[in-house]
């Protein structure tokens, strides 16, 4: 391991050591409102760096945007700190965030609820985004979204979905095409810039992530929308680790006659999930992810794996904080909020 890689890993593990634990979450849950939660957050780790400008009148949406800003700041610090040519792979969260904004635009603008997209606008992306995100928020048709994306790979990905009218394509198709592009790009960069055990380890991380995407798609499209097995498979990624096409089709076929959630939870990824964590697929996936990335971050000697794992864990931390904020806002019992946390 090079000195540069060792320094990146040490820096990432120091950030990992600052992730919130159960005691901190319990203190946050005990607060009366969003303002008190944010005031307490400022006393933890580096949260004050991003939350210092807000007071106890802060709104939920503002607090959540600051949480996302903090995540991206930590990621960006590590990305710029990384040595060598692998920096292209380290763009993964930037690409993921750009795609998230396009999907949100297609979802909210396509539904005609324009105001819901604007509050989600991440101002910290303005200067580094590959497209004009302000112009994206002003789009009112799918073709206007495409106009904003011209000159980026996203245009080529989404242009075939346009039928030349003002109609929006199904959001599941937009999500699928962009997510497929994300992972195709990551695998290409891994192949180009990594070799040996490093490539194998990072590829496995990303393939596992593809499995989790496909698991959630199977649950959503078959369990909620009752799509045929053929149609569901058509919307799953062509990459896998342990959740291959044969296994997927077997589960989807059985799900024609029985609930799909118990079938999915029999997959090896969820063998240690307890009853409370098996109430919905999102909780099961996040719980499995946390255990996996905790182990990877603690044990891996690969800087790419460690940084990827840290960003996944930071996203889980943000999810937990959102759970706390929502639980306090709706006056849920502290014990009920605590059970909803991914720990």
From TrEMBL:
Q: Which GO terms describe its molecular function?
A: proton-transporting ATPase activity, rotational mechanism
Task: Spell out the InterPro entries in the cross-references.
Answer: ATPase_csu/dsu_sf, ATPase_V0-cplx_csu/dsu, V-ATPase_V0D/AC39_subunit, V-type_ATPase_csu/dsu_dom_3
Q: Which domain of life is it from?
A: Bacteria
User: Per UniProt, which keywords does this protein have?
Assistant: Ion transport, Transport
**One Pfam entry name:** vATP-synt_AC39
Q: Which Gene3D superfamilies match?
A: ATP synthase (C/AC39) subunit, domain 3 (1.10.132.50)
Which named protein is this? V-type ATPase subunit
Which source organism? [Eubacterium] siraeum
């Amino acid at each position: 391991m090079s000195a540069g890689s060792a320094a990146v890993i040490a820096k990432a593990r120091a950030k990992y050591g600052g992730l919130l634990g159960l005691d901190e979450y319990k203190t946050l849950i005990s607060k009366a409102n969003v303002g008190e939660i944010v005031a307490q957050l400022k006393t933890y780790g580096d949260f004050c760096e991003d939350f210092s400008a807000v007071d106890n009148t802060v709104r939920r949406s503002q607090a959540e945007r600051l949480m996302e800003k903090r995540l991206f700041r930590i990621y960006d610090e590590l990305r710029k700190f990384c040595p060598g040519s692998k920096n292209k792979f380290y763009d993964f969260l930037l690409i993921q965030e750009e795609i998230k904004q396009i999907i949100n635009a297609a979802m909210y603008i396509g539904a005609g609820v324009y105001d819901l997209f604007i509050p989600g606008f991440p101002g910290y992306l303005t200067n580094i985004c590959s497209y004009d995100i302000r112009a994206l928020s002003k789009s009112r048709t799918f073709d206007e979204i495409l106009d904003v994306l011209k000159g980026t790979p996203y245009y080529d990905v989404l242009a075939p979905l346009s039928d030349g009218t003002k109609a929006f394509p199904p959001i599941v198709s937009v999500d699928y095409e962009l997510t497929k592009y994300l992972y195709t790009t990551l695998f290409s960069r891994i192949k180009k810039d990594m070799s040996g055990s490093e490539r194998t380890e990072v590829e496995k991380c990303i393939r596992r992530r593809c499995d989790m995407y496909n698991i959630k798609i199977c649950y959503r499209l078959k369990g909620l929308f009752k799509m045929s097995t053929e149609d569901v498979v058509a919307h799953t990624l062509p990459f896998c680790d342990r959740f291959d096409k044969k296994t997927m089709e077997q589960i989807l076929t059985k799900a024609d006659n029985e609930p799909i959630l118990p079938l999915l939870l029999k997959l090896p990824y969820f063998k240690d999930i307890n009853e409370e964590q098996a109430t919905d697929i999102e909780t099961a996936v996040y719980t499995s992810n946390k255990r996996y990335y905790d182990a990877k971050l603690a044990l891996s000697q690969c800087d790419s794996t460690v940084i990827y794992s840290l960003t996944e864990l930071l996203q889980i931390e943000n999810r937990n904080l959102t759970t706390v904020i929502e639980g306090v806002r709706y006056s849920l019992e502290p014990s009920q909020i605590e059970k909803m946390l991914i720990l």
